[in-house]
Queue: 3 jobs
Job 1
Amino acid sequence: MLKTIGVSGVGDLFKDIPASLRPKSFNIPAGKSECEVTGHLKRLSSKNATDLINFVGAGFYDHFIPAAVDAIVNRPEFYTAYTPYQPECSQGWLQAIYEYQTVICELTGLDVSNASLYDGGTAIYEAAMMALRLTKRNKIIMDSGVNLIYRTMLYTYTSNLSIEFVEIPVVHGQSSREELFKHLDDKTAAVILQNPNFFGAVDDYSDIVERVHKHGALAIASVYPVSLGMLKSPGEMGFDIATGEGQSLGIPLSFGGPYLGFMAAKKELVRQMPGRIVGATIDKDGRRGFVLTLQTREQHIRREKATSNICSNEALCALRAVVFVSLVGTEGLKELAQRNYQKAEFAKNELSRIAGVEVKRSAPTFNEFTVSLPRHANEVVYGMIDKGFACGFPLGRFYKGMNNYLLVAVTEKRTKEDIRKLADGLEAVL
Amino acid sequence: MNAPKNILYTKDHEWARIEGKKAYIGITDYAQAALGDITFAGLPKKGDVLKQSDICATVESVKAASDVYAPFSGKVVAVNENLAAHPELINKSPYESGYFFIMEISNEPEKAKLMDSTAYSAYVEGISK
C-alpha cells in the first residue's frame, strides 16, 4: 500500500508536521506484541481514578444516562454520517436536529434555536458577537459568576477585536445589581449572566433584563439545562439570548469533550444567529419534510462579512441531548430537577453538621452549593480522593481569596448513603 | 435594463427618488437582475441616522448577499414593511413597491455625487462590457 501511494514508510505520512512537534516517544517498550501492548496501556489507563464518588460539578455534571441513548446514537446511520452537505437528502438527520431545536426552545422559553454549537463557551462568544453586530456597540458587561472557562474563552476568541469588557464582582455569591447598574449605559452591547451562577446561586434576573433593555442592550443568559426542569426560564425572565453547556443532557463526562453548546434567541434575532437552523415544511405531495431553513453565510456567500465561522454543528452530541430529553420526558425532567435539588438540600444539612464547615445560604441553589472549610480546599480534596471521593471543586482555583471554599454538586446519581459517607469522610479529613 | 428618468443613481446601484425633502431609496433593476431571486432584505430602523455611503441595509438572494449604501445623509423616516413577507417585490418592482425605505435628506448638495438616468445607463453599459 505504501508503494501504491508513493511513500517509503509510515513516517512519510506525517512529514507535514515539523519533527519538533511530533511525539519523541510513546514510551512503549520495543518488540512487544499487540496483546502485550494492549495490556500495558490498560494498566496505564487504570491509574486514572474513574471510580471516585463524584461531587464535582463546576459546569459539567454527573447525570445518569439511559442505555437507550447509546443504542440510538450508535446506529451507523447517525454515527458514521458526516455533516450533511446536501442537507435535504438527509431527512433523518434534519428531523433529529429539528426535534433538538424544539427541545432547546421549550427548555429556554425562547422562540428559535440553532442546530447547536461546540460548547457552552463558544455559545457565549457567538451570543456576544450577535449583540455587537446588532447594537453596533462595543462594550460587554459580564458577571464574574459566569464560569471562568467561558469567560476565558470569550477573551481568547475576541483578543484581536476592540471590545471593552467589564467584569462585575460577585457579592455574597450573587450577582451585584449595584455594581452592574453602575456600568450599564447606552454604550453597552450586552450583559452576560449565568443561572445558577458558578457558586450555585439561583437568581431571577428579570429586573436586570428590564434595565438592560432600557439601554438598548441585549441580555444574554448562560443556563444549566437540567435546572430548567424547575427554574424560571431565560425566556420568562425576558432574556434575548440563552446559551449553555448541554453536556448534562445525556453526554458523558470526559476530559476535553466533545460537549454541546446550545443557543436560543428571540425570533427577531434569527438572522444574526450562528450556525444552522432546520425547519419543517410540506413537499409538493403534501408530506411533512425538513429543510435547512437558514445557515450562516460563511462558506457560501459573503465570506468577508461572515456572521460566524461556525458552519456546521455538534450533531452527534445534539442527538444525544434530544434522545435523552425524549426518554426522560417533560414530567421526568421536572422530577429529575426536583431530585437534584432535594439531594443537594439533604447534602447541605449533612455537611452543615460538621464542625468548621459552613454551608453558604445567602441565596437559593439548585444542585450545587458553596461551603467554607477550616483549611485549604485543595488539601481537603486530595485527602478525600484517598477515601474514594471527588468531593468538590476548590473555588480558589478560579477566584482569588477563596482558597478555603469548596463547590459541591449533588446529582440524582448520588444516594443518601453516598452523601452521608461524604460527610463522614470530610469530618475525618478536616 | 430599466432606469427611469425621474430618479438618481449611485455607482453601487442604489436609486433615490426625491419628493420634497424626502427620498425613496431602493436598488436598481440592474442590481436585482444581477442578484437573482431575492430572499431577504435587512432594513434600517425608523429613526436611524445615516451618513452618505454608510451601510444602511443588506440584501440576500439565492446566490449572493450584498450591502446597500445610503445615497444621502439623513434620517430614516419609514421602511417598507412589505419586504419582510415579500422580498420578491424587489425583483418584480425595484423602483416602486420594492423600495427599501424613505429618508429625510439632511444635506441636499450631496445630490451632486449621484448620476441621472442617462449617466447611470452609460455606467452600467461600461461595467457590463
Job 2
Amino acid sequence: MTAVAQDYSPTRRARIGGWDSTWLLWIAIIAVLLFLVVSPFVHLVVTSFQAERTGAFTFQNYATAYGRARYVDALFNSLQLGAGAALLAGVLAVPLAWGCSRTNMPGRGFVRMLVLATFITPPYTGAVAWILLAGPNAGWLNRIFMMLTGAEAGPFNIYSFPGLVVVIALYSFPYIFIFTSAALELVSSEMEDAANILGAGAWRTMRKVTLPLAIPAILGGLIICFLEAIALFASPAMIAIPARFNVVTTQLFQFFGNPVRVEVAAAYAMPLLGVTVLLVLVQRLLTHRKSFATLTGKGGERRPIDLGAGRWAMFGYAMLVASLSVFLPYIFLIQAAFSKAWGRGFSLENITFRNFHFVLFEHATAAQSVWNSFLYAGVAATAGVIITLGVAYIVARRLVPFGGILAFLCVAPFVIPGVVLAIGFYAAYAPPPLALYGTATILILAFTTRFLPIGYVNASAAIRSVNPEMEEAVRVLGGSRLTALRRVVAPLLKRNLLGAWLLIFIPATRELSSAIFLYGPGTKVVSVMIFDMSEEGNFEYLAALALILQVLTLPLLYIGQRALGRDFMLRRNAT
Amino acid sequence: MSKLVLKNIGKSYGDFDAVKDFSLELAKGEFVSLLGPSGCGKTTTLRMIAGFMPPTSGTIEIDGQVLSSPAGVVPPEKRGMSMIFQSYAIWPNMTVGQNVGFGLEVRKLPRAEIERRVDRILEVVQLSPLKGRYPAELSGGQQQRVALARAIVVEPEVLLLDEPLSNLDANLREEMRFEIRRLHDEFKITTVYVTHDQSEAMVTSDRIVVMNKGRIEQIDPPHILYGKPKSRFVAGFIGRTNFVERDGGTYSLRPQAIGLSAVRPAANAVEADVVGRSYLGEYWDYLAKPLGETKPLRVSTGPNSLFDVGQRVWLEIDPAAMVRVEQ
C-alpha cells in the first residue's frame, strides 16, 4: 500500500484530558429530570404543608383532607376496589395465560389478539360500553333478560360497587396476563416432564409444579392490577359518582373542582402515593426473589400440554372472558355509534352516520381534541425516547459516576399515580412565573414524565443488546462517540426505538387521569372529550369518538407488529 | 527509536492489581504477543494501549509522545490505531465494503481513493466477491477477514488484536494465524496481539510477553521462551515440561529432550519403568518412572518407537537441556 495514509490519519496531537462533552450531556439530562420528575414531586409534598394563600407551614390541609368521615371512607373504598378488581382480574387472566402459553387450547393466537384488543381499550371506553350493557332498566343485558323471562326489571346494575369492580377488572386483567405468560414461558417442559414421570397427571402437574413457579409473577401482576385500579379516575367517575360513593381519585377531583384546593388535594393524595410506593417495592422483591431465579435462566424446550377434550372447555372460558371484555362491549358501542338513539335498538331506520359526521366536522372541539391527543402523545413519546435513550446509554456505558441516579429518576414516575402526578405538576408549574396551567406544554410534560418508565425499560434493554465492541470499533478507527451513535448504534436500534416510541405513544393518546387535572379550553384531549360527553349523556357521539380513537390506533399496532413481532404490546416491558 | 513504549503501566481496582509495573518497548514494525491465562491482565493492557481506559500508574507513548497517563488519556479516536475485537464487531448494518471503507471515510479520503483502497485490501484478504454482502451472510472466517481488512486498510500506527481467533473452529484458527502473520509481513504494521493460545502466539510473533497475575514473567522470541524459560510458570505454560528438583533448585526438562531406548545407551542414562502411555498420532507420550523415584517423567518419542506399559527402559538425558527456573 502507498504511504499517503499518513496525511489523513486522525490527529494524534489532541491534548490529554480536556473537556468531555458527555459531562455536558449528563448535566443537561439531570436538569431535564429534575424538571420533569423531582420538582413536581417536591412541590406535591411541600404544597401539602402550605396554607392556601400565605404559603405558611401548616397541618391544616391534612386536617381538612381527613376531617370528614366520607373522605376517609373514600380511602377504604379504593382499597376494597383495588383488591376486588385485582382478584377478579386474576381469575380472568391466569387461566387464559396458562391456556395460551402452555396448552394446546385451540385458537391461542386469536385469544392473544383478543387480550390485546382488551388492552388497547381505554378504561373509560370500557366503562361506557358497560353502562350501555348493564345500566339499570335500559341496559342491553337487562332488556334481554326481561325479554327472555318476562320479568319487570333486570338483575344488573352497573352503578354499584360490584359493577365498578367488574368493569375495572375486565380492562386491567391484561396486566396479569402479561406477567403470568412471561413467567410460564420460562418454565421448561422438562420440569413438567419430571412431575409427569413421577406419576402426576396434567392437572396435578399444573397445580403442583407450573403454578407455584409462576406464583411470584402472578402476585406481581395482581399488585400492578391493584395499583391500576386505585389510580384509575375515569371508570369510578362514570360509575361510582352516580352510585353515590367516592373513591380516592374521584374525591381528589372534587378537591380540585371550583375552587381549586390544590393544598388539600396534595395532602389527600399522600396515602395513594404511599400505598403505591410500598406495593411497587413488594412487587420488585417478589419478582427478584431467589426462587424466581429458576425462571430467568434458559427455558429449555417447551411443548404444549395436551388437554384432550378439556381444551375446548378452556377455549370456551377464553371466549366467555372475551365476550365480556371485547365482543359485547364493541357490539353495543358500534350499535350506539351508528344509531340515532341507542335505546331504539337494532333496526334499519335507526342507522345513521350522523354521529361520526357530527364529532368530526360539527362539534366545536371534538376533532381538535383527537388532533391534540395525537400531537401531545407524539411529542411526549419522542421526548421520552430521547431522554431515556440518553440515560440508558450513559448508564450502560458507565460514562459518568452515579449514573444509577439518572436511571432511578427515569423509573421513579412508575410509583406516582397519574392523578397524583397531575397534582404535582399543577403545584409546580401552574403558579407564576411559568403559569403553564391549561397549556399544551404542561400536558406534554406530564405525559412525558408519566411514560418515562416504559421508555427507560425499553431503551435500556435495547442498549444492552448492542455489544460495546461495535462502538469501540468505530472509535478506534477514528470516529467520535457521536459518530458511533449515529452510524452504528442508532441504525441497529431503529426497530427497538420505534417499539419504545409506540409503547409510549399508544397509551399517551388515551391518557385521562393526568390530563383531566391539567387541560385548558384549547387543549382538551380526546379522553377528556369522551369523559365530558359521558357526563352529558351523549352516548351516540361518545361511541363514535371512542371508535375513531380505536380505529386510528390500528395502523400503529400494525406498524409495531411488523417491526417487533405480533405480541409486542403484550410483553413485560410494555407495562 | 521505539514505536510504542509502555513505561511501568499499572491498573488497579481498589486493592486488586489487574496490571502491575508493566514495561515494554515495541520497535517499528514489530509483532509482539501478550500471552497468559485468562485474568492475567493482558486484555486490560491492550485496552489501555487503545485508550479505552486510563492507567492508574505509568505512561504509554507513541513516537515519544505521551498518549496515556494517570492524568489523562488521548481518546481512542485520536490515536491513529486499529483494533480487532474478540467479537469481530463487524457492523451488521453496513456491507462488507462499507465496513472496510469506514475508517477511510472518517479520515475524509476522496471517494475514489476509498474505493481503490477497499478493493485492494479485499483482494489481499480474498473477499473481493463479497464486497456488497451484509455480515449476516458471511461465515465466521469471512467475518474475521473483514475485521482484518477493516483494521489494516487505514494503515494504523499500531494494530491491536484482542483474542481475534477464539471464536473460530480449530482448523480455521490454524489457517488464520498464518494469514495474520502473512498480512504482517506484507504491511509491516507495529502489532500487539493478545491471546491465551501459545501456538497462536508462537506462529505470529517476533516476541512474546508471558503474563501471569498482572505481571510480566518473561519477554523473549518464541524459540528462546521455549528453550530457556526463566520461571516455572513460563516453562509450564509454554509447551509441556517436566520439573526436576536437583541441588536445591528446580529444573525444566522438555519431554522431547529425553531419549528412550530398550537397551542401555552410552552415557548419562537412567533406568526406568514405563507406567503409562498415550498415542497422539504425531508422537507418543510416555510416562516413565526412574527406579527409586516417586514421580514419573513425561517423554515424547516418534510415532514408531513402541514400548509397553511395565517395560524396563533407559532414559537418556542431555544435561544441557536442563534449564534452571525460578519458582
Job 3
Amino acid sequence: MTDLLELTALELGAAIKRGEITPTQAAEAALEQMEETKKDNAFVCITAELALDRAKTVEAALARGETRAPLAGVPMGWKDNICTSGIPTTCASKILTGFAPPYDATVVERLERAGAVALGKLNMDEFAMGSTTETSYYGPARNPWNPDHVPGGSSGGGAAAVAARSCWYAIGSDTGGSIRQPAAYCGITGVKPTYGTVSRYGLIAYASSLDQMGPLARSAADCAAVLDQIMGKDPRDGTSLDVEAGELLGGLSGDVRGMKLGIPAGCFGEGLESEVGKAVLAAADVLRSRGAELVELEFPMMDYVVPTYYIIAAAEASSNLSRYDGVKYGWRAEQYETLTDLYQKTRTEGFGMEVKRRILLGSFALSAGYYDAYYKKALQVKGLIRQAFDTAFQACDLMLTPVAPTTAPKLGESLSDPLKMYLSDIYTVPVNLAGLPGLSMPCGFDRAGLPIGAQLIGPALGEGRMLNAAHAFQLETDYHTMCPAQRGGRAK
Amino acid sequence: MTITAELVDYISTLSRLKLPQEEKEAMTVQLERMIDYVDTLSQLDTSGIEPMSHVLPLENVLREDTVQPSFPRSDLLKNAPVPDGEAFLVPKTVE
C-alpha cells in the first residue's frame, strides 16, 4: 500500500487507466491513511461512503471509456469554503454550523466531470482568515513534518493532507497566500492562478477582488493537470476571463534556456531567516544550471504591501460577511429579543476573534471620515504595486522570492501577536493585489527538518511559464518527492 | 491615531457586533496597533493616482435574457435556522 500512496496524482491516474489500480483501491488506501494521520486534524468532514460510491461510478465510467481525464479516479479533498451540494460547508466557522449548500461550486462540477473522487472537506482558518489553521472552529490542524508546528494557513488542512499522503491533491483558496504559504510549510507544491482564470462561483467569499482557487499537490505537473480542468470561462462568475485552458500539462517541457528569472533584492533582506534565503537562492542556481538567466531587480513597494492588503481584504470581508445574520442559513443565537439583537448576538457568538478583528478593521476603513485616508488610499497604492510588477516584468520573465520569511512556526506562537502574523504574509500578498499567478515549490529543509518553499511569480496569465520553471526545478531536485516519514515526521 | 472605546462601539454597531467588555478592551488595543501600522501608507504620495478596483481590464458582462431555473424554495429553507415551510422566521419588526 505504501507504494500506492507514494505515487503522484498523475502516476496514480495513469496506473488507474492501465487497470493496475482501481479507484476503489485508491480511495480505500487514502481513507486508511486518513485514519493513520487523524491527529493532524486535516479534515473537518470525511465523506467515506460517498467517496467509495463515487470511486465505483468513476470505475464504471472508465470501463465504458467515458472518462479520459488524466486524474480520473484519483482521491482528493476540498477546502471547507468550497460549496459541495448536500455536504456540510462551514468555512470552519461556528456561524455556518449545519450549512449544506444546495449547489456545487464550478470547480467541483468541473473536477467531478473529470473523475475526481472527493474524500471530504479540509480544515482551514475560519473564513480563510489566518496564516496557521489555528483559528478553525474545529481546532487547529497540525504539520505532518512536526505536530508541534502549524501547517500554515489558511488552506492548512489541504496542505497537511497532501503532505501526509492522505490525499493526492486538494483544492484550496488563496486571498493573500493561503495556498502558497501552507504548501511551503508542508513541503508540497501549490498554485494561485491569475485572478479571473478559475471561476469563484461557489467559493464562499472572503475578499472577492483577491480570492482565487487553485491546487495543492505533490508536483508542478500534478498542479498543471488540475488547473487544466478547473481554469476557463464561467458565465456564473462576472470576473471570469475568457481564456484558453487545458494546455498546461502538455506544455511542460522543462526547458528554461534563455528564461530571465528576476531576483528582487528587497525580498532577501531584513526579516528573512537566513536558512530560508539560502535555500531559495540555491533554487535560482538550479534553474540557472538548466539555462535560465538570473536578473537582479528592484521591487520598491515591499514596505507597503502588507498594510495595503489588510485594508482591502478587511474592507471586503466586512462587506461579504454581513450576510451571516442567523436568518437564512447556519447558526442562530439561542436568546434574543429584537431583530437587531438577533443579528448582533448571532454574529458576536458565531464569529471567532480573528474574523471579528478583520470585520471591525474593514468597517473602520470604510466608515465616513476614514474612507479616503484608508480604503481609497489602499486602492491607490494597489495601483502603484501593480505598476511595480509591470516594471519588473519588463526586465524578467518570472520572479523568484521566498514564500514566507520563516519555516512553520510552533502552534500558539502566531495568534498571540496578530500584527506579527500579518507581516509574515509579505511575499505572498503583493501577488494577489496585482492579480498575478504565484507558485510555491519545496526547495529545502531547515535545521529542524521543516520544509522551505520558494515562490515563482509570473505576469498575468503566465501560468504556463511559471509551471514549466517549477517543473524544470523538480526534474533536477527531489524535495517535492520527500514525505514526512522519510525524515522522521509522523505520517507513515 | 488613538482608538477610543467610543470608536470601537461605533464600528461595532456598523458591523452588527456587540463585544463583551473583555473582548472590547483587547480589540481596542489591537485595532490601535493595526491602524498605526497601516498608517505606513500615509508616507506615500499618491496624489493624482487613480484608485484601482480591478487589476484586469473588465468589461460589462451581459448574458442573454433567458429564463433559468431557480433553486426550489424547500431546498433553500432546509438551511434556515428557523423556517416555517414558506419563509424565514425572525422576531417581529413592526408593531
